[in-house]
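Bench log, entry 3. Co-assembly request; chain sequences pasted below exactly as received.
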Amino acid sequence: MRPKTIRAIRGTGWTFIWLGVYLLGFVAYQLWFTNLLTAREQSALAAGLDEHFAEVVVEEVEYEPVIPSGPSTTTTTVPDTGPPPPEPEPRILLQEAASEEGEAFAQIRIPAVDLDVTVVEGVRRRDLKKGPGHLPGTPLPGQPGNAVVSGHRTTYGAPFGDLGDLAIGDLIEVETALGTHVYAVREAPERCRTDDGLCVVAPTDLWVTEPREGAWLTLTTCHPRFSSRQRLIVFAELVSGPNAEVIVGA
Amino acid sequence: MLKRAFLRIPGPPAVRVAVAVVVAFALFSVVIWSYEVLGDLLDSGGAVGQ
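Structure output for the full assembly:
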């Protein structure tokens, strides 16, 4: 064989060897090293969570229940005379101050999928490397409306790796400075329901984060596994906790 | 191959080592950055509308 041919074969061989090393490194980085990073972050966050609970400012605010809009179908007659009806007792809601982005503020536990992780504020890339993140602009868990929490499904500890295994009625506990808020998984809305009962949407489907009547927790993660093409959504409704009686009358 | 590339760096051994360390660090950074970019295709964190 000519030296030029030998050099070409050798060069091709080395290219494939380095490509193999690169790909092996990629797999190791994604499936092992990112888990180590998140595990280390989670240890530090969990250690500081009790301190956060002790320091965070909790205040009492008056709860204004959401009244669905729409035309009234009943007519009431108000007498012209007589004393006005008594004012209803104000309903008091406990509210905590929001944390800085990247700070731990809650612990989320889902016994059905053996999940117990610390939640941080924010959904930037660096926030989600630490653990599940709360979407800023949505209410905190335990508050009226729709609290949205996102998390990795495959890498960085895969906190929401088994989200697809949740069934209707499974309980999700979120411990915050106010106490433990318990949510129950509800049926996926028809507009996003797949044949197997999951809610799958595009990454740009912002309607899943919109405010809802009552108190809801919406968990979002990538779908399917090993792809960020779509989002898997789990909707859960508050069933008990420090504010449940005020918001949902539980 | 790596040894040959190292010997091609001009200058005394101390300079060669310094250049090799800088190049290795730069390559490592590029590799990790590419892992992060490719990793986003596998799992971008699950946030909606980001």
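The helical segments of chain B are 2-8, 13-42. The longest helix of chain B spans residues 13-42.
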